[in-house]
Amino acid sequence: MEKEEKKFVNKAEEDEMEIYGYELCRWKLVLVTVGVICSGGFLLLLLYWMPQWRVKATCRRTTLKDCEVVLLRTTDEFKIWFCAKVRIMPSLGANPLQNPNPIVHKVSNGHAVHFCESAAEENKNDLKKYLPVSKPIRYFSHHSVKYFWNDSVQSFDVLRGLDESTFCSSIHNEHSTGLTKGMHDFRKAFYGVNEIAVKVPSIFKLLIKEVLNPFYIFQLFSVILWITDEYHYYALAIVIMSVISIVSSLYTIRKQYVMLHDMVAAHSIVRVSVCRGNQEIEEILSTDLVPGDIMLIPSNGTIMPCDAVLLSGTCIVNESMLTGESVPVTKINLPNPSEYPKAMGDEIYSPEVHKRHTLFCGTNVIQTRFYTGELVKALVVRTGFSTAKGQLVRSILYPKPTDFKLYRDAYLFLLSLVVVAGIGFLYTVVNSILNEVPAHTIIIESLDIITITVPPALPAAMTAGIVYAQRRLKKIGIFCISPQRINICGQLNLVCFDKTGTLTEDGLDLWGIQRVENARFLLPEESACSESLLKSEFVACMATCHSLTKIEGVLSGDPLDLKMFEAIGWILEEATEEETALHNRIMPTVVRPSKQLFPECKQATNQEMTSYEIGIVRQFPFSSVLQRMCVIARVLGEKRMDAYMKGAPEVIASLCKQETVPVDFERVLEEYTKQGFRVIALAHRKLESKLTWHKVQTINRDAIESNMEFMGLIIMQNKLKQETPAVLEDLHKANIRTVMVTGDNMLTAISVARDCGMILPQDKVIIAEALPPKDGQAARINWHYADTLAKCTSSSPAINSEDIPVKLVHESLEDLQMTKYHFAMNGKSFAVILEHFQDLVPKLVLHGTVFARMAPDQKTQLVEALQNVDYYVGMCGDGANDCGALKRAHGGISLSELEASVASPFTSRTPSISCVPKLIREGRAALITSFCVFKFMALYSIIQYISVTLLYSILSNLGDFQFLFIDLAIILVVVFTMSLNPAWKELVARRPPSGLISGPLLCSVLSQIIICLAFQIFGFFWVKQQSWYEPWTTESDSCNLLDATNTSSAHHGNETLHDHDEHYIKNYENTTLFFISSFQYLIVAIVFSKGKPFRQPSYKNCKSFLTVYSSNLFLMCVYFIYVLLTSGNFFLQLVCVPYEWRLRILMVVILNAIVSVLTEEAVDRCGVSFLSSLFGCREKTPKAKYMHLAQELLVDPEWPPKPRTTTEAKVPPQGNGSYQIITVT
């Protein structure tokens, strides 16, 4: 066949994959069957582990259109292969992804499916008339998503709902009537059941999957080999340990499945009411919902079983399951663009862009507000795993592999051990042939050396440290849903913080107000509760412009709104269901002053004041993208309505009539923001009398939010949390950069950054103000210095040399980023720089400290930009607007009351940033533990390998119980207790290495291998030089302690035992090497159990030190020196050696310990410099991009930009993103 063009599924998305088509090939299948039989099933295992080999070995390549099997490969750095069987589904009609008839409207790339609705379609006969008989539909399933064949693109594609390529106008005009029964059934055939099914696998399936793990297959191979070699007890012990490990693993995996199943299954199946195309209301199960159904939201609320866009009414929703934010959110209906005569234009509906109108699956609708006769309706746009909740569950079920240098290096390290095993294999074969050993013995012993060199318990040992770290984190209130990230947190060298609620207190205190009259600021006022202001438009705006609601009689909503409303002392009243039902329109929320605010005056005036009420007619909720919110309200008895708006001062001022904005607006705002106050601006507008209640309900937001009158400022005091400065100081001392990412005003953010120590008093702050291309001019960046911003006037154009930051030369590369200048910018500037100044992005993020007015997606882009210059990025936020950044960061920590939030890998129940250094300390401890365990397991294999190789030279080996004693009494206990060392009490400036392939680590391992090799070889040859030495036989009696009486019985007993000692286990070399190697395991365990500066020392780990090392050393010394004094130990197959020799071996062990400890200490202190001088290496360019860039910028005369200069984008013909710096005089 001709080579088919490379096809993709999920093109340009995070889970993009290449796709290839294959069909079954019978002759290949026969060959594979023969191969499986000949290899004893090993080929089958290999094909099970490697899906790409399995498909290529049994199938031949064909086009996707005719394939029976598809082969998928991810396009990310991991290049993981998957295979799936193509299935055939009988169609009720035409394929929705084709367009052979007027029923189905095809959307490009097989996206949203739109069906015409008419009375004729209600009749099934009419349906058949339009739908010709079609061929069966082909599809495959992968990771809980169905991919259907799409003829238009000649590939498979996901069947989308109404969440893509659907215009807002068509949602109202084409989809608001509901589906007919026939069309509902038609869609259900494709979309399937609306459920997020987390199937709990049976014990048998889990067992098969676990047992077929390469680790257990290797264990099985080893056990068979040991049984063949008559190591029955050792093989039995390993089998028992493996069974315990499998049972434990099965229990953990099944428990996780059950927990996830229970979490997803809760409230997932409910009865819902839907509107049919003929206006009938039908009650169905939520599992029968399909995109296009019109769902009625009950007034008492519900758990949403799907993603739906609100068509009418208002809902109050708790979205804590998705965001970790427990504050209820108000959802309003999606505006209909076709009803706006002066509309800006129609736009495509998107759940993310229009999230204020979208009810997400799994969220809790607390209550609704509705019209009489026009219930609260929502259009189903996504179902099942396509919903927001479904995608989160998929990310848990099918997590992306963790890309961490430690894990990559671990495979290389194992590969090197395999090479060592190969050398031992060849040595054993050659040595055995030269000594004329039988063939079956050669095969067994040469394979045995492989099982010794590659430690089968390594994966279990590596996870021990992470499990213990996870338990310690749980004890301090930090919950983790991605344990592998704990190790990565040990590498964090930059942490981004949200401001409000993270660095500062969640609650805001009203510091005061500053009203505007006749375009001039009045003096600041401490309180808004005064008689003169009671009926003012300023207080009316504070009383109405919010999203507060009453839930079970308690006022609830955004903390800022709550503080603002409480400051004026008004009362909020919402209409009950009964009151709403009496009117032909929705009853507005009413606010009025409390009686305590009424002045003591005449009765008539008092009655007039008590009747003063304001009804909130329409609400445009706060948008973090627009940075404002707006309401339409009417005073009781007034004919005309009022529009009130509050939000970011810069945004509000830009939407007001310029003649109403004070001339000194920017100066006053700067004074407040530089002091760290949070400033909110208010605006007002009288609406035209022709605007009726019905028109207001459908009017465009942009039509209201213009030509406003500026009313003044609300100044809120956002206090730093008590622990913030101390935590940031600890991070700075540890050379961990801190960055502020906030939605607040930039000068406020800079002030808070200075107050908390993120920016030191002597440091300069450079504000990058980027402007997009306009009127033929290129995009440009204006550079201002924050402290001199107000001084920049035409009368003083000269640049003060003191304002230009100093470049510092640092001793270590780690300190390069800590120079005396910081960049600050807002979200708009960041967006322009990303688009037009790509070359500048790395330079700016290298010193960028304050990023203000950042939208949620921009926070994610910032995290990615920091990762692109090789920072290990942590993100700490409240989970509300930070979900994307929390997930994208290497270590995302959500400050939430929830025990575990799917918003981030880590969740801290304590709403304090003190959890950040705790997590980093635990991460460093877990990372160092992983290194320690890995190094120990490698040395354990090499020490045993050396012992066995030396014994093979005399055709001997270690005994069955000797192996058993080493593995159970020493290795197993040491591995699982050396991981118990808790984290060091404080963060230090040095970070642990990120990989195993590094100079100090390799130097440490190699030096210990050489020491162990030297002492074993020394003991092996020294024993042969002893005067009493002779090749051991049953008559050997080197102890000279047996009298004549016991000689015969001992001789008889030894003869009996010798009959069973076919492998020549009992000899002086074996006893000597066993004694030395047993202590070497403990020596390297102590040497590698590093304490300060990342973990607490072993002697503070009572379970580890006292239980294992002390007791083992003491017991082994007593055992070897005294118990073996009179006779050989038959249990461990040791022989009796003279007392003097035991003392000499003990001296060798002590010397070994001293040399090992001193060598490790020397490697720690001067290993890197020694290696550099040894190989004549000069100081290399740092690997991390940010360190390399910092070195370059130190010698760049144009960086940082000088005050009052402009950088213009210059787009040459051959590229883009270049720039030139122009000094403005």
TrEMBL record:
InterPro entries (alphabetical): ATPase_P-typ_cation-transptr_N, ATPase_P-typ_cyto_dom_N, ATPase_P-typ_P_site, ATPase_P-typ_TM_dom_sf, ATPase_P-typ_transduc_dom_A_sf, ATPase_P-type_domA, HAD-like_sf, HAD_sf
Protein localization: Early endosome membrane; Late endosome membrane; Recycling endosome membrane
GO biological process: intracellular calcium ion homeostasis
Any coiled-coil regions, as ranges: none
Boundaries of every P5B-type ATPase N-terminal domain copy: 13-150
Substrates-to-products reaction catalysed: putrescine(out) + ATP + H2O = putrescine(in) + ADP + phosphate + H(+)
Keywords: ATP-binding, Endosome, Magnesium, Membrane, Metal-binding, Nucleotide-binding, Phosphoprotein, Translocase, Transmembrane, Transmembrane helix
Ranges of residues in domain P-type ATPase A: 271-396
UniProt topology in membrane: Multi-pass membrane protein
Origin: domain of life: Eukaryota
A Gene Ontology molecular function term of the record: ABC-type putrescine transporter activity
Transmembrane segments: 29-50, 211-227, 233-253, 410-429, 449-469, 927-955, 961-980, 1001-1023, 1072-1091, 1112-1135, 1141-1159
Enzyme Commission designation: 7.6.2.16
PANTHER family assigned to the protein according to its UniProt record, in alphabetical order: CATION-TRANSPORTING ATPASE-RELATED, POLYAMINE-TRANSPORTING ATPASE 13A3
Family: Belongs to the cation transport ATPase (P-type) (TC 3.A.3) family. Type V subfamily.
Biological function: ATP-driven pump involved in endocytosis-dependent polyamine transport. Uses ATP as an energy source to transfer polyamine precursor putrescine from the endosomal compartment to the cytosol.
Protein name: Polyamine-transporting ATPase 13A3
